[in-house]
TrEMBL record:
This is LicD/FKTN/FKRP nucleotidyltransferase domain-containing protein. Residues 1-21 form the signal peptide. It is a single-pass membrane protein. Residues 98-203, 214-252 form the LicD/FKTN/FKRP nucleotidyltransferase domain. GO terms for biological process: glycoprotein metabolic process. It comes from Clathrospora elynae. Keywords: Membrane, Signal, Transmembrane, Transmembrane helix. It is found in: Membrane.
Length: 337
């Protein structure tokens, strides 16, 4: 059933492409609007080449700071806040794509999280999705800078998310490597985001049916399509047809087998990744260390405040004493006269 849908989808695509490639007159020439479009893109790209090459900026390059958008960053958030942000963020994203009939699917670590229990991996610092390049270009043309108002299904959480599309989406190879992320879905309260990357057939002449992102993750058409409809974080989502192969290619078979990872253990009863006792102990220790440090700081501030008060009091007393002595002296001089 699925395979026949796939075959039909591919047949349609082929038909569409071949009809595009053979215009009614002057074979192999481009339409004026296509040429104008291309020139506009080239000009846009040239202008970009001369300015700042990187579009998305992060407050730092390490694995933590590299996952915040610099414009909206106000400090690293707690695990609880990240979990809350990411689970609403992906629901909003999937709803937006669904409402606008745009195709997208979950990828990388997010796909791995789905594989285990249909949820994000609790330690994941960002979320990843993919789109086909046609969808990406449509996002750039029509939906760039959308601010999506989100209301959770229970009505308890309202948020706003920004869709920001990188102007470098027209360049489909890696280039200087500074713009491999094509778009972001950003929580503007704290700067956390979903990385959106587009896939293109970058070598349709020599490698047809091979899809690649700008970071050269490669997929065959048949690995991706037809997409499977599923649930992720409680909302309708899509995953690539051959998700097992894609995950093993990227993370090796261990990622689907090993049940202790990144300070978490897979609990078969709960079907959840839970923090190991070791992680919990470490967190308790870290929290206590911070508390002690904060108390010391507070005590130091208090000590300095008291010292300042003492100094002022003493200065006041000294001044009083001097005043008295001056008066006495003046009195003595008056007596002498
Ligand atoms: C959010 O949804 C709830 C019901 O699901 C509704 O009562 C509430 O008015 C909505 N809030 C906004 C801001 O749309
Ligand atoms: C999206 O909007 C931003 C802000 O206006 C702009 O800098 C960027 O070039 C736009 N992206 C595309 C693909 O046009
Ligand atoms: C899994 O979670 C359940 C419920 O919290 C708990 O009773 C059980 O001991 C856990 N299993 C493991 C292996 O930690």
């Amino acid at each position: 059933m699925r395979l026949s849908i796939c075959a039909a989808a591919i047949a349609t695509t082929t038909l569409f492409l071949s009809s595009m490639a053979t215009p009614a007159y002057k074979p192999s020439s481009k339409s004026p609007s296509q040429i104008a479009d291309e020139m506009r893109r080239k000009q846009k790209q040239k202008k970009l080449d001369t300015i700042d090459n990187k579009y998305f900026h992060e407050p730092g390059g390490d694995s933590t700071l590299g996952h915040y958008d610099r414009r909206y960053f106000h400090g690293v958030v707690s695990d609880e806040e990240r979990t809350d942000t990411q689970s609403h963020m992906i629901r909003a994203y999937l709803n937006f794509f669904h409402e606008n009939e745009l195709d997208t699917w979950i990828a990388h670590g997010t796909l791995l999280g789905w594989w285990w229990n249909g949820k994000r991996l609790p330690w994941d610092l960002d979320l990843d999705t993919q789109v086909a390049d046609a969808t990406l270009h449509h996002l750039g043309d029509v939906h760039n800078q959308t601010r999506y108002a989100y209301n959770s299904s229970d009505g308890a959480t309202q948020r706003e998310f920004l869709l920001d599309v990188n102007p470098w989406i027209w360049q489909r190879n890696r280039g200087d490597g500074l713009n491999v992320i094509d778009a972001r879905w950003i929580d503007t309260r704290n700067g956390l985001f979903i990385d959106i990357t587009g896939l293109s057939e970058i070598r349709p002449d020599t490698h047809p049916g091979v899809w690649s992102c700008k970071n050269y993750h490669m997929y065959q058409t048949g690995e991706l399509y037809p997409m499977r409809e599923t649930m992720f974080e409680g909302v309708v989502a899509k995953v690539p047809y051959n998700y097992d192969k894609i995950l093993v290619d990227e993370y090796k078979v261990g990622a689907l087998v090993v049940t202790e990872f990144n300070g978490h253990m897979w609990n078969t009863t709960l079907k959840e990744w839970v923090k190991t006792q070791e992680t919990l102990d470490q967190e308790t220790k870290e929290r206590m260390r911070k508390e002690v440090e904060e108390r010391k700081q507070r005590e130091e501030v208090e000590r300095q405040r008291k010292a300042g008060e003492e100094r002022k009091k003493k200065e006041k007393e000294d001044r009083k004493k001097m005043d008295m002595e001056d008066k006495k002296k003046a009195l003595g001089e008056a007596k002498l006269e």
